[in-house]
Amino acid sequence: MKQHRNNSRRSGLIVLILVLILALTLTGCSISNPAAQHLTEDGTSVNIESLSTEYKLGFFDYVKLPFSYLLSWLYNLTGNFGVALILFALIVKILLLPASAKSKKGMMKMSRLTPQVKALEEKYGDDKQAYQAAVNELYRKEGASGCGGCIWSLLPLLILIPLYEIIREPITWLMFHGRVSDATLGQIQNALISSGSMTAKALSSGRSAAYWQMSAMPYIQTNLEAMKAISPSIVAMNTKLLGVELATIPHVLFWNYFAVSGVWNAVGQFLLPILSGGINMVSVLFGQKQNNAVVVDKNGNQDEEMAKSSQQAQSNKMMTYLMPLMSVYIGFVAPAGLSVYWIVQGVFSLIQDYFLNKHYKQVYDAEDEIKRQNAAKEAALEAERERLRAERRAENPDGMVGAASKKKLQQRQKNEQAAKEAAYQEMKAAASGMTDAEGASEDPDDSRRPNRRGRNYDPHRYDD
């Protein structure tokens, strides 16, 4: 179980590190805003002359390009940014289905092996080398990995990072597909400042600088003519979903913004992060319950007690609270569109996990049924063997079976002969102490053997 726990800690640590990286990315700590860092001396506008007029795509930018084209195509198809995000999340889930299936299978497999690993620990005790060799052999035989599907579960999380950057920067990725210079972004910001839509301070400080592109989406439509003069690639986008603006950041004290953004918009934005955290918690608890359902002993019977100490259960103790809290935090520091994506992704994950669990549980139930049948057959055979052994013991209480019977028979005959000899000697010794007369009267053979002492025997020969 120590190796199981070490694998669980290692998997949880990797996931935690990636979640922290994701959180830093989403809160703007890992990406700068070049346009917002070059203000004029009076701090009222962006200094365009200090910005580069060329763009340069890095390695990760090429990773983002396919997703940017896909999301842009979905928006052109639907005409709504929220609906495009929902379809985008669905397509990404379908593309990542093989990796998700591998991850689910690996985690359920590791959970199933918990009782056997525990048995090996009890068997080998302090012999760590023999224990690890036995565990590795068990994993090899069962086709399991020590990471328990962790590697496959990391792939979707790694892909989420560039996806969130695309959602966070719709001007760069949905309008220009990454091919936009800092000078062009600076001109867009100056146009927003000159129209009074946004301030230079909001564009250059804190999380507003990290999410200025999403925050600018509603104002592009009202300043579309000036934006088109900067670049024809700039288009107005509908960023509302069911009356809730997805391009602005929700507020914890939402009631203070009723007059500014409207009651429903303020309440709806506040509910999105809460709903995101709730769905994430339900998803983790559902997955934990399904993984525990496949923990069985060597005979294929469910082992609920052992399920509580499984690797996946230990990992889920941390993930049960970490992921929901992280999604709530991200929801209140990022535009509401990210919460929508997180919610939709969580709902699709629940649906996907339901069918994957159902599929693999049927597979494992069939394996468990075979184990139970084999265990029942073995128990019946053992009972029959015990019955036959009992019959042989009743027929041969001395245990004379097979090649050893002759020796045992000879030994028993020898013991019987020795016992007879000892009884005869004892009787002879007792008889020598009797008088002749008593001996004659008590000897039952005197009448039948009158000459047993010889014909000339005279008992009174030496009488005076």
Elements, N to C (H/E): HHHHHHHHHHHHHEEHHHHHHH
Structural class: mainly alpha
Mean pLDDT: 76
Number of strands: 2
For the biggest sheet, the summary is: 2 strands, antiparallel
**Poorly predicted spans:** 1-5, 435-442
Q: Choose one word for the global shape.
A: rod-shaped
Could you tell me the radius of gyration in angstroms?
A: 44 Å
**Physical arrangement of strands within the biggest beta sheet:** 1-2
Question: Distance between termini?
Answer: 103 Å
Strand content: under 5%
Q: Counting H and I runs of at least 4 residues, what is the number of helices?
A: 20
Oligomer: single chain
**Helical residue percent band:** 55-70%
What's the layout of helices and strands?
Elements: H1 2-26, H2 59-78, H3 81-95, H4 97-112, H5 114-124, H6 128-142, H7 150-168, H8 170-175, H9 182-194, H10 200-204, H11 206-210, H12 212-222, H13 224-230, E1 240-241, E2 244-245, H14 258-261, H15 263-292, H16 304-307, H17 311-333, H18 336-395, H19 405-432, H20 436-442
Antiparallel strand pairs: 1-2
Helix pairs in contact: 1-7, 1-17, 2-3, 2-7, 3-18, 4-7, 4-18, 5-6, 15-17, 15-18, 17-18
